[in-house]
Amino acid sequence: MTIAPTSDPGAPDPETARSDSRGDGVIFLLGLPRSGTTLLQRLLGQHRSIHTVAEPWLMLPLAQLLSNRLGQAEYDSSLAAQALDGFALELPGGRDEIVEGVRRLAVDLYASCRRQSGARYFLDKTPRYHHIVPELSELLPDARFIVLRRNPLSILASVSDAWFGGDVAAALSNPHHRHDLTAGFAHLDAAPALLGERACSIRYESLVADTEHELRRLCTFLDIEFDDAMLAYDPDARYKGSFGDSIGVPQHRSATAASVDKWQTTILRPANVPAALAFLRDTPASSFRDVGLDRDTLIEQLERSAAGPPAPGASSPSPRRATPPRVGTRVARGRRVAGRVVRDAARYVRRDRSAPPGERPSDGASESIEPAGPAASSPIGGGGERQGADDRVRCTREIGLAFEVALGRAPTAPELTHWMTRVDDGFMPWDVVASLRGERDVRATPAARDDAARSMLSAAFRRYLQREPADAEVDARIADLGAGSSPWTLLESIVASPEAARHRAQLERARLRTLWLGFEVALGRMPSDAEMAHWSALIDDGFMPWDVVASLRAGAEVQAAPGERDEAVQSMVHAAYDRYLQREPADDEVAGWLSDLVGGMSPWVLLEAIAGSDDAQRARERVARRDDGEQLARLRSVWVTLEVALRRMPLHAELAHWSARVDDGFMPWDVLASVAAGAEVRLGPEQHDEAIGDLVRAGYHRFLHRPPSDADVATWRADIAAGRSPWVLLESIADSAEAATEAGLERLPPTLLAAAVLEPLYGRGLTPAELAEWRHTLNSRAIGRVEFVTSTMLDHIRKTVHLRDAPPLDADPQSVPIMGTTRMLTPQAWQARARELAAQPPAPGARRASGPYRATGQPRVSVIASLYRGGRYIERFLDMITSQTLGTDAELIIVDAQSPEGERAVIERYQASHPNIVYRRTDRRVGIYEAWNIGVELARGEYLTNANMDDIRSTDSLQLQAEVLDRYPWVDVVYQDFFYTLDDTLDFETIANFGFRSDLPIVTPANLMQYNSPHNAPMWRKQLHEEVGLFDQFLRSAGDYEFWMRCAARGKVFFKVNEPHVAYFQNPIGMSTQPDGPGHEEGMRSLRKHADSLVSPLMFADDETFRAQLESWCGVPVGEAASTSFYDLAQRALESCWRVGAPSV
Amino acid sequence: MRVLVDGVVFGAGPSAAADRWERLLRTLAPDPDVCVDVLDRGGAPTIDGATTIGFPSYQARNTPADSLLLQRVATHHGADVFVSTGWTTPTTTPSVAVLFAAALPPHVALGDRESAECALAIRHASRVVCVGDEARTVLRDQFGGTDARVAVEVDPDRGDAALGRTVAAALHAAATTAAEAAGFYSRWAALREIQARVDG
Q: Are B182 and A311 within 8 A, CB to CB?
């Protein structure tokens, strides 16, 4: 039942006459969601002098007319505020007239509602009014305010229990509730002082402890007599409207203290304590004092009770349960957006189409659509309850969704008829799904029922709300089913929700707009109402915009051919540009839209995007300004000047003040100088020249994020000297194409922008280090984004031209950078060291000896060597391998790639005494990686290593590597530091004494993008090839590097052996040492191929998403600074993690 | 109790701090209740009664990856407690930080990667043993002061045996935190993993 007015609605209203136009008859009940406002409303609502309904939310949009601080809209709210200010200037009473008008509207609406009951007061209980206390005070200065306070921990616990399954961290991380749970307390703290005698504060704890006393106090405040009826209420009754507590209040008939200490159950769960502690520390102490609590004592209590976070797998809620942002999805979308934005850097007509869908206001659960309540007449299993056309529509809708879930398509008419019949037989929606999936009519099992219901709900969210549901939204509906809701009304709360209505309205508007333009393009006129209805129906049947145009042109309903489609789209884009932007589109703009359509953009939003673009907005402004005269233009000029001077948006008062000064003759440079000086100053004519320069520089800094060139400044000086108004100077900069593009590029995460611009230029993926550097640079505004794009491209062009014209590199093939260090090994350094060793030979045996190796007699390690022109080295190479401590546990596989130097004879000689040498000569000349792949196929060992003819290894080299793979089954690749040599005649010990040693890092995907650490004689598990594939035999020099990239991308583990046991000969004629060899190009190509897999998607997250990811793990805020690197933010998170949950002894 | 000691201080070559660490290890190794494994990042001494385990040399680059690899090795060898010299940290194995002023990262106040890692080592540790007033001063002045975990401030002149007893007590105490602080360690590991992914 609903709560009806307590007296005859038609009766005379003696009380109403008492209200005046300043809100005397209005009571605002201020309190945060879940603080007991519904309870107090119920109690007060029992009084015959007080009329109330469920939350009206009326004053929120009205208050927005007085202040643009209250939130964003799909239109630009700052422009709206600016326009409204301009409008106010046109009113005789100025802004006061707007306030008065809004006041009249509010008072009339409240009085109209109150008049139904003849009550003296209308009680408006809307918890989100805590945002607008100052505006309420100004709008209705005679209204009464009741400020309800409650223990903040009780509120936090109640919010967590009601909407987040008791997960405090999830409640605090929810963007909507976070506002209530942070700013909300401060707002209510400030309210009593702001409202003075118009407000009466009451504590929830006092209300439930001594209800009569508190209500009597409120009655005195309201100047009405206490009524015993206020002490109880009907728990089954509901106020008309959508919102209010549907959880606690309906469980009782009067105020009860049962909930006062209930918070402890939720808050003191170990998993919740860290987040609750952070909440306590962030909430003003006054919010606790006002309800008789001491915040520090509560903190101590929580810290004492914190027995440590729960063990993994514990069932209590943990921060992990707060769903982390889906970074991967964002990156994929972001990359597409980034590519498009950069491609279209010169065109700037689009606005951000990725804005999240609007929010539905609700008491506390603003992210969720409230599920439909249980329908008493439709228990589960009662399929025969459907009646009437509405039921049939619902049934059709559910069957449609069942088809979508089960078969991914809509039902045909015969199928629909069949299933409607089955429904009449008692089939439920999940039975339909189960039957479709099983291809025969069956009843779903309980498990299949839940699965089908969940799938259908998800499909309904996607279809009607264009988004995925939150888990809580699905769970609530499943719970409703369990509580007796009819399955045939399952979707109604979604379909009938305001959010769905908003989506339908948007789609309808887009369709209408497209239809209009289709008529204009095809017939050169607007459609009639009848035509609109006709074509709307066809659109419902699947007609696309191009079909409409083609049909109108053909005079019959036809589907457009592909060529007609593109032509129709182009014509419509032209028409839209002409109408909304007052200009022709550039060719690349038209091509861009066509490309977007091909890429999946809905044709119905195309024209919306154009009509809603910033450029269209400016076009409208231009028209408005032209039509409305100079007043608004001047206001805009003052606004822009102040924005530059203040480096932020000006306040209303500032705008009014400086507009008056401009009326007095202040020039823009006077405004700039005054703001800088903190006092009003007027510059003399002799200072104007310099002042123009300052003005231009400030404007460039603000809107273009770059300094002007000297020529820019000179041009402006000349223009103003020639008589151009200085007032248009900054506005021109602000409205420039570059500024618009800059603003558009600002919307991209900096890493995405950098990747989109630089990766095509570099021909490879950016490394994480480069991404981090660009993120810092762009966030710090050291360079504007347009300047970044243009200067980067220009630099690249210059470098390309320079490289083309430069003489060939004359690199010394005998010099080599020592990997992992900043040092170079040069012939000079080598010779100097040789002289030192000759003068003072090193003591032998400095190297740690390996332990004895117990051979198994079976080849465990396969050494793969590609042979081509190795005659010079073959004997030493064979000696080196056959003298390994692994002995016969190592086999040597030599793949002779048709070497012309007759090494075979030498090899056969060694084979006679070493049967574990395998020799295979190919029948054609093969590349090194094809040879290796042949070796992999031949290998019998579980571990593989490659060897070059000029490699030099210590005798225990293979043993050292194999032991690591033996010891750590989770290691996939072993590599090592190594010694360099410029002399290929030396043995390993001598080379080691030279001491030119690499210092390789632990291999990570990131540093593997910078250099190929495992390149020299690594050992790996043969099994890797089954998982990752063979070497890319079409590469000539970087096949191993490309293979390691694949391994790293798949999370394979690399382990470095510290002890160098191999030497690397810097071969002056080797392929990898040639400056014009293929290695560089192949490496770049491989990086381009694998960058997406090697760079974590986190690197492309925007700051907010990354912080949310961290906070979901550590449970507390980690800070806001945009210039802080992701690495440092993670460091902060680790510190925060320690603060809230450090181990103690 | 199996203890994994990171021998990072030996990687920089002979020093007074390395000598002191070697003496400490020689004191701990004979303890029948303690099984000591020493990670050899280069230059680690052979200690009677202790096992030497090869591990990649320390670099200030890629420290989160180093930490994740340390944890793999600690888990593989069944370490109950990790002993940090203030340079490195595992993720889910409880740790004790033993701080010698001379063996702490240089430029510890400059906010570089090493000092950040030192801060993490101290935060992660269930017990912090400051050897000497200077180490205690560093801890107090540069890492936000001492807390209840720092139960010991050892006078270096009291000798190796006294230090060995103190460290052994700290190890036993830290080993008890594994189950109790499992939630903390798992969150730490997750954050460290994230940090590794965004480490250039």
A: yes
Confidence of residue A732 (pLDDT cuts 50, 70, 90): confident
Shortest distance between the Cα of B169 and any Cα of chain A, in A, equals 11
- Taking an 8 Å cut-off on Cβ atoms, the answer to whether A308 and B40 are in contact is no
- Which residues of B are less than 8 Å from A1144 in CB distance? 126, 148-149, 177, 181
Q: Which of B76, B176, B187 to mutate to test the interface with A (most CBs of A within 10 A)?
A: B187
Q: Are B82 and B92 in contact (CB under 8 A)?
A: no
Instruction: Check: CB of residue A15 under 8 Å from CB of residue A119.
Output: yes
Got the DSSP string for A1076-1126? TSSHHHHHHHHHHHHHHHHS-GGGGS-HHHHHHHHHHHHSS-----TTS-H
pLDDT of residue B50: 96
Reported as a single tens digit per residue, the pLDDT across A607-663 is: 777 877 888 888 777 765 555 545 666 777 788 888 888 877 777 778 878 888 887
CA distances from A181 to A143, A166, A267, A534, A1106 (A): 26, 15, 14, 51, 22
- Across the range A481-486, mean pLDDT stands at 75
pTM, to two decimals:
0.51
DSSP A385: G
B190 in reach of chain A (CB within 8 A):
yes
Residue A7 has pLDDT above 90, yes or no: no
ipTM: 0.94
State how far the Cα of A233 lies from the Cα of A235, in Å rounded to an integer: 6
> pLDDT tens-digit profile of A314-331?
333 322 223 333 333 334
Put simply, the answer to whether B183 touches A271 (Cβ < 8 Å) is yes
SS3 assignment for A1053-1088: CEEEECCCCEEEECCCCCHHHCCCCCHHHHHHHHHH
Give every CB contact of residue A380 below 8 A, 6+ residues apart in sequence.
Answer: A428, A481, A482, A484, A485, A486, A487
Contact B190 A1113 (CB under 8 A): yes
- B102: distance to nearest CA of chain A, Å? 24
Taking the CA of residue B191 and the nearest CA in chain A, the distance in Å comes to 6
Would an 8 Å CB–CB cutoff place B162 in contact with chain A?
no
Alpha carbons A375 and A492: distance in angstroms, whole number? 12
Question: Which amino acid would we find at residue A493?
Answer: S
